Amino acid sequence: RMVSIGDYSKELCGGTHSHHTGDIGPFKITSESSVAAGIRRIEALTGTGALEYFQNQERTLKETAELLKTPPHALAERIQKLLEQQKELEKEVERVKAQAMSRQFGPSGQDIREIDGVKVLSQQVNADSPKDLRVMLDNLKDQIKSGVVVLGAEAEDGKAMLICGVTDDLTDRFHAGEIIKQLSAKVGGKGGGRPDMAQGGGPDGDKLRGVLEDVFKQLAK
Q1: For the chain, which residues make up each domain, given as ranges?
Q2: How far is the C-alpha of 157 from the C-alpha of 201, rounded, in Å?
Q3: pTM (whole model) above 0.85
């Protein structure tokens, strides 16, 4: 509870009262949170409790500085650099992963067909997540230069994952969102997206191979 005396004083009220602030010793607010609408809770430590808190904080600071081989005053800068390095490494991992996927699942003659002069690639691949499918899709679109790419994968739980990409020069003829919408319905699910890229899927992963084969018939209509 907060006691306000005009604009002169605002004081916490409750708990142990002291005659002098010096009796309290160190005072450290450790948390502030909402209890209900218009009500805030402030938690603090005083005396030896506050001293122990400061000592623990200092100990943690020193241990962290030793682990990072950095003086305490430079920890923030050091951690910022580490986070930037981590982001760069994550990008490099994704790049290498994409290259590996491209080599493993590159387009083959039997997977690509021409429909009214348009290259169409429909292929089942191994992918752990929709993100992996997006990586494969981008690389395969780059490889075929111009065309429509449809990829499907069966997840560990047996569900089907689908993705479709249409190169920019063909989005006036083919809409990836509409293609995926129809394919997803065939595996008992839903999907959709932009003219150039769309994702979907459904629970019937066992129908995936047949659905991917139907892509050629669907686009030939």
Answers
A1: 2-67, 105-220
A2: 13
A3: no
